[in-house]
Amino acid sequence: MLGGPQNQEGSGSGWVLDNQGHIVTNHHVIENADVITVTLSEDKDSYTATVIGSDPQNDIAVLKIQAADDLLKPVQLGESRTIRVGQKIFAIGNPFGLERTMTVGIISSLGRTLESKNNRLMKNIIQIDAALNQGNSGGPLLDSQGMVIGMNTAIATLTGQNTGVGFAIPANTIRRVIPQLIEFGMVRRATLGVDLFWRAEQGLGVARTEQNGPAFNAGIRGLRLERRIERIQGQLFETVQVDKSSSDRIVAIDGTTVKTTDDLQEILSNRKPGERVNLAILRQGKLINVPVTLGLER
Questions:
Q1: Do 15-71 and 88-184 have matching folds?
Q2: CB 116 within 8 A of CB 57
Q3: For the chain, which residues make up each domain, given as ranges?
Q4: Whole-model pTM above 0.90?
Q5: What is the dihedral of CA 132, 127, 139, 272, to 10 degrees?
Q6: 26 contacts 10 by C-beta, under 8 angstroms
Q7: In the CATH scheme, what is the homologous superfamily, with its name and number, of domain 88-184?
Q8: b vs e for 235-248, b when ≥16 Cβ sit within 10 Å of the residue's Cβ?
Q9: What number of other Cβ atoms are within 10 A of residue 16's Cβ?
């Protein structure tokens, strides 16, 4: 880059959560930002915001500003489980820096998945056809009663412009994540303490457990490595063979079937560290039940 470092500036959207000055937006809107400023709809001044907490996995962030109560206009979170395809919706944001722009559309589909910043899948994403463009990220998605049923987060496009396929994080995910971001600055996720998995014909194979982690302490078994010394053309070589028969296969957690790591993560997302779960394990052809006390994901 010629001429030395250049200032870079980006814009996004957000919405007021409460009268304490908490602002909700997307994680990717504020990621790697040195300074974050917030402008309110009824005030020309801008406010420097502090990041209270951020969750890359669900693309949610909570900021805080110091502003007068009469300038803060909190919106109310609605219920995303009762929304239906074809329902009318309103998307509010700042596309291309055009403040407080509203676009109208319908819910096109439900239950979509999107890949998050940490390469995990965000589930139950809402698909909409209301126009979303650069700068809309973090803006509220409203129903006809003005309730927030989601947060606009992404579009599907080959050109970078609106194509009528937009996506929003559901309100129920936001409602579950926000209290933890405000209290802890992060989402305290439960974990089994398994480092690696492998895809088995039945269930999810355990490849390696964390030393002294929940699965390790519960006696969950991973792959066994067999090292052998072989002489080939007069030279000694060490070979490593993997014994999959020694590995436990997780087939269910608390009665819910597990086939993939996504299945596992979805179940654990509704559990808390310290909670006790019952694992149905396939061990050398026999189905056994193993209780495990979940740990805190680091």
A1: yes
A2: yes
A3: 15-71, 88-184, 190-296
A4: no
A5: -150
A6: no
A7: Trypsin-like serine proteases (2.40.10.10)
A8: eeeeeeeeeeeebb
A9: 21
Q: How far apart are CA 88 and CA 289, in angstroms?
A: 47
The number of beta carbons lying within 10 Å of the beta carbon of residue 13 is: 25
What is the three-state SS of 198-249? Answer: EECCCCEEEEEECCCCHHHHCCCCCCEEEEEEEEECCEEEEEEEEEHHHCCE
| pLDDT tens-place values along the chain, 298 residues long | 233 333 445 689 999 999 999 999 999 999 999 999 999 987 788 999 999 999 998 999 999 999 998 899 999 999 998 999 999 999 999 888 888 899 999 999 998 988 877 777 788 899 999 989 888 999 999 999 999 999 999 888 776 667 789 999 999 999 989 999 999 999 888 999 998 888 888 889 998 899 999 999 999 998 887 677 777 777 777 766 767 788 899 999 999 999 888 788 888 888 889 999 999 999 988 999 999 999 998 7
Nearest of 21, 16, 70 to residue 43 by alpha carbon:
70
> What is the C-alpha to C-alpha distance for residues 296 and 298, in angstroms, rounded to an integer?
6
- CATH of the domain spanning 190-296: 2.30.42.10
Assigned CATH class of 15-71: mainly beta
Task: Name the token pair of 108.
Answer: 């096109």
Catalytic residues: 28, 59, 137
